Amino acid sequence: MILNKKFFVDNTKTLIYALAIAIIIRSLLIQPFYIPSSSMEPNLLVGDRLFVTKYSYGYSKHSFPFSPPIFKNRILFQKPSRGDVVVFKTPADNRTDYIKRLIGLPGDQIQFIDANLYINNSEVFKSRISKKDKIFCGNNIIDVFTFEELLPNKKKHVTVYLKDFSYDNSDLFIVPEDHYFFLGDNRDCSKDSRFLTSVGYVHKNNLVGKAQFIFFSSDISEGSIFSFWNWKKIVRFDRFFKKIN
Known about the structure:
Blueprint: H1 2-29, E1 30-34, E2 48-53, E3 85-89, E4 97-104, E5 109-113, E6 116-119, E7 122-123, E8 125-137, E9 140-150, E10 156-162, E11 173-174, E12 179-183, E13 202-203, E14 207-217, H2 231-234, E15 242-243
Antiparallel strand pairs: 1-2, 2-14, 3-4, 3-14, 4-12, 5-6, 5-11, 6-7, 8-9, 9-10, 12-13, 14-15
């Protein structure tokens, strides 16, 4: 009876220690995330699993599971860079995780004019690299033009637009102090900061971390990853350990 009690106590302690270590790593260092939507195609695909570094921008209550009110503001804050791919809590509910590309910094003026992106009255240069790509928008496959965009800080990334450039013009967005403006790389299939009632400007306290690299990816349209006999179709081995630009 004594042995059984000691066995139970020792194993409970081990479980508690392991759980505490996992929470510390997840909260302070690195956290895995799963991509459920096509808003960041072609750079992030549905079924990608990636690691996000929690320390990149310092810490807020959203760094921890269930967002406990530990901090009122962000501590050890480090400013994100334009072009970073960032996970953040949506301002609408402070609970849902979104992943988008950081386009606008505090004080920036953002606007689309004739399907071209402008930052502080300067057009963001984009060069077309393909005019016959097909990507997902939800469950639909759409025809897009693929561009390489060059942001003001010289960071390059790939974006796609519908061939008819359906998102031609927008209001002028002026990013408030301590807030950021995000866009999806799949420009005509992304709910992002352009939609002020659902996402809008994101406060620095809502930043969760910086997306760094993909560690696993599977095409869920081809079946479950548990169907190991079909892994050749399901698992995207070429995306393993791919750095996120």
